[in-house]
Amino acid sequence: MCFKFQHCVVVLPSLQYKGKLIFKFIHVPESILQLFRISSRTALAVIYALILFSNTATAAPDGKALFQSNCASCHNPLKDATGPALKGINATFPSKEWGYNWVHNSAAVIASGDKMAVEMYNKFNKAAMTAFPQLKNEEIDAIFAYVNSVTPSAAPTAGGTGAQSEGSADSNGYLYVIITLSLLVLVVILWKANQALSRAANDKEGIINEKEVPLYRNKVVIAMVAIVAFIMAGYWLVNGAINEGRQQNYRPIQPIFYSHKVHAGINQINCLYCHAGAEKSRQGMIPSSNVCMNCHKQINEYTGEKDMPLKTAEGKVINGTEEIKKLYEYAGWDPVAKKYKLNADGSIAATPIKWVKIHNLPDHVYFNHSQHVKVGQVQCQRCHGEITEMDEVYQFAPLSMGWCINCHRQTQVKFDNDYYSIFAKYREEIKSGKRTGVTVEELGGTECQKCHY
Question: Residues in domain Cytochrome c (predicted)?
Fold first, then answer.
């Protein structure tokens, strides 16, 4: 408690006499009063700023961030990908409530026999959308508001790209930094003001003030710095250990510049034409040069330099025709004579292309492509990102155990597949309406032996 008089402040001392609290008037120099006034005004300004920032940060859901974290792996606002283009799609819904139900649990809407839901499900190869029961209605509205505002020049690609991951800097995370720094400044201001007032009070009472210890010699400060340093070092070590062996965004230089954007995107070559093993075996399979030559016996130059120039991630322009010539050298093909070169023993003078493997799993992890692609009907983009937009392929997903486990918890299996005929109980429950679907987790997809044995 304090009372303000002209040129002084009455400070509340901690003296008691016979159980009664005694108040004394202490004169405080004008310089100290001025410091206190400035500190008070600064503190109020900081508090107002924090309130303003908090209101700004929580005023409305961030549609862009929600889209990138929940939808971008399968959807593009402007064009069809694994799922339909989202811009303006909410205007085609029978009602807002229908849209909310579809996002929360599309499988339930399909199971109800809704005509629009069934048509959309069949149109996109019966690839059921992941359920998002955790999204609130206002968050879904924010997502649609964002995708409806996207222009062709700013559209993110389905599956995400390097640019998209950089876009995470646009989130509201910086507000937390500002708030934390503001609170620290407020603490320092109040602490210094309290020190100044205490020293002034002591001077008035004739009490000798203790000599201030420099911060670098203050035991409390030293202890706090040591604790913070210990925590940061522990975080750095643990985080480094967790990420050991992971190589998300890994983009090695390949012996031939092969553009998936040109082949799988523009020319729409099916992934399984080159990676036939993904549907039939455990391995996705890297195609041999003779698979490439099925097309490039006729296609001996790249004609898209003007409309679609090939560029590396660093922006270096690549001569596509020269890369085709590299293929001919590896395949042993003579483009002039239009026949293969032969060795002395009559075999084709071909050399294997030393492609650099991008997606690597630890030796103790079992992963079967055919089980996911053929049986589970998982789209390639789910794990590899929007491959049709990549000139240079990079590892899109972290491929960590937590990432796989979360997918198994959320993904519903396609029970119209004969592979699941042995699960009669689940089939009957789906027919009777007791359940809308079955996740991979319910079929043992999160048991250790599923991937480690």
Answer: 58-151
- Paired sense of beta strands 317-318 and 2-5, if any: unpaired
Rounded-to-integer distance, Cα 167 and Cα 157, Å:
12
Counting as low any pLDDT under 70, the low residues of the chain are 1-60, 153-172
CB atoms within 10 A of CB 302: 18
Q: H helices then E strands: how many in the chain?
A: 19, 8
- From 200, 168, 220, select the one nearest 32 (Cα to Cα): 200
Tell me 129's DSSP state: P
Question: Rounded to the nearest 5°, which phi and psi values hold at 4?
Answer: -100, 125
Q: Report yes or no: 396 and 263 within 8 Å, Cβ to Cβ.
A: no
Write down which residue in 171, 196, 231 finishes a domain.
Answer: 171
Q: For 168, list phi and psi in degrees, rounded to 5.
A: -60, -20
Instruction: Indicate whether 445 belongs to any domain.
Output: no
The contacts found for 205-209 with CB under 8 angstroms, 24 or more apart, are: 205/26
Spatial distance between the Cα atoms of 328 and 333, rounded to a whole number of angstroms: 5
Q: How many residues does the chain have?
A: 453
DSSP 77-110: SSS-SSS---TTGGGGSS-HHHHHHHHH-HHHHH
Q: What are the respective helix, strand and coil percentages of the chain, to the nearest 5?
A: 50, 5, 45
- 72 and 10 in a single domain? The answer is no
- What pLDDT, in 10s, does the model give residues 265-292? 999 999 999 998 999 999 999 999 999 9
| CA-atom Rg of the chain in angstroms | 33
Residue 342 pairs with which residues in a beta bridge? Answer: 348
Pairing outcome for strands 15-17 and 20-22 = antiparallel
Enter the tokens of residue 317. 């322009």
Structural domain count, the chain: 3
Give the Cα separation of 89 and 144 in Å (integer): 8
Domain housing 99: 63-171
**What is the value of pTM for the model shown?**
0.53
